[in-house]
């Protein structure tokens, strides 16, 4: 979690600035595959999720739905952590 990926937009809201087919960068915030933490525990979520970011690493959107992993704080995505309703 916290990896930066390049993705293509598959669905977009009609009034959105991001259009379908656009290539964007995103940060992985949740994965179904378990992730081992340094203390030996594992964390796993019900679904995969990513947050779109711009070139400077700031999130494009103003809201983040659902919990995000604590590892994002270590990787300096503090804005995403502050927008999330819960950090696990």
Please give a structural write-up.
The structure is a single chain. The strands form 2 sheets. The protein has a 3-stranded antiparallel sheet, with no helix packed on it. Strands 3-4 form a two-stranded antiparallel ribbon. The mean pLDDT is 95. By secondary structure, it is of the alpha+beta class. The longest helix is centred in the C-terminal third of the chain and has 6 residues, at 78-83. Helices cover 11% and strands 25% of the residues.
Offer a few descriptive terms:
88 residues; three-stranded antiparallel β-sheet; two-stranded antiparallel sheet; 5 strands; 25% strand
Q: What is the CA-atom radius of gyration, in angstroms?
A: 13 Å
Distance between the termini: 12 Å
Number of alpha- plus pi-helical segments: 2
Q: Report the major sheet.
A: 3 strands, antiparallel
- Series of H and E elements: EEEEEHH
Q: Could you give the count of β-strands?
A: 5
Shape: globular
Nearest-integer average pLDDT: 95
Sheet with most strands: strand arrangement? 1-2-5
Strand content: 25-35%
Helical residue percent band:
10-25%
The structural class is alpha+beta
List the uncertain runs: none
In short:
By secondary structure, the chain is α+β, with helices and mostly antiparallel strands. The chain has two helices and five strands.
Question: How would the blueprint of this fold be written?
Answer:
Layout: E1 4-8, E2 23-30, E3 35-36, E4 42-43, E5 49-53, H1 71-74, H2 78-83
Antiparallel strand pairs: 1-2, 2-5, 3-4
């Amino acid at each position: 979690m916290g990896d930066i990926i390049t993705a293509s937009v598959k669905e977009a809201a009609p009034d959105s600035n991001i259009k379908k087919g656009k290539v964007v960068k995103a940060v992985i915030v949740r994965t179904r595959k378990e992730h081992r933490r340094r203390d030996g525990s594992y964390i796993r979520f019900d679904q995969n999720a990513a947050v779109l970011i711009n070139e400077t690493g700031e999130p494009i959107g103003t809201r983040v739905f659902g919990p995000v992993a604590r590892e994002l704080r270590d990787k300096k995505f503090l804005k995403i952590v502050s927008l999330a309703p819960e950090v696990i």
